[in-house]
Amino acid sequence: MNMRLHITYCSKDKKTGKGEIPAIERYDSSRIREVKELADRKEKDFAILSGKYGLIPSEKPIPEYDKLLRKEDIERLLPEVKKFLKMKKPEKVIYHTKKVEGKRKPYFELIKESCKVEETDFEKRIISQDT
Which residues form the DUF6884 domain (predicted)? Predict the structure, then answer.
């Protein structure tokens, strides 16, 4: 089976409110919704790379939070991201991102390193829109 996992990073813009709601609803980002729709159309799995929680399914309920992934956070989140990849066992990870620079760089480094350690094929796809 050729299982591909489509991933994009989280969004600073989030819907406010107490309690937990699915990540796909919490993140207020057209980029995230578009990558999810692409994965759904292709009947492929989709996950979001969170600066706080690591790699999570889009339906995972999460509370409101504000945590930008920084380079020093990579080591802390690496085990969680690897655990998710071990569980899903994708043959290939397709990471959707705008140009890898600035605040997006640690997210890219985390998912790329996780794929390398788990010996999972990795593809970066540059997208033109970012929210």
Answer: 10-73
Distance CA 69, CA 129 (A): 20
CA–CA distance from 42 to each of 4, 16, 52, 78, 79 (Å)? 10, 31, 28, 28, 28
Indicate whether 131 belongs to any domain. Answer: no
Could you list the pLDDT tens digit for every one of the 131 residues in the chain?
A: 569 999 999 999 999 988 999 999 999 999 999 999 999 999 999 999 999 999 999 999 999 999 999 999 999 999 999 999 999 999 999 999 999 999 999 999 999 999 999 999 999 999 975 44
Number of domains in the chain: 1
Q: Residue 70 belongs to what domain range? A: 4-126
User: Quick check: pTM over 0.90?
Assistant: yes
C-alpha distances (whole Å) from 100 to each of 87, 103, 109 are 27, 8, 9
Q: 92-97 and 4-9: which strand pairing?
A: parallel
Which CATH number do you get for residue 58?
3.40.50
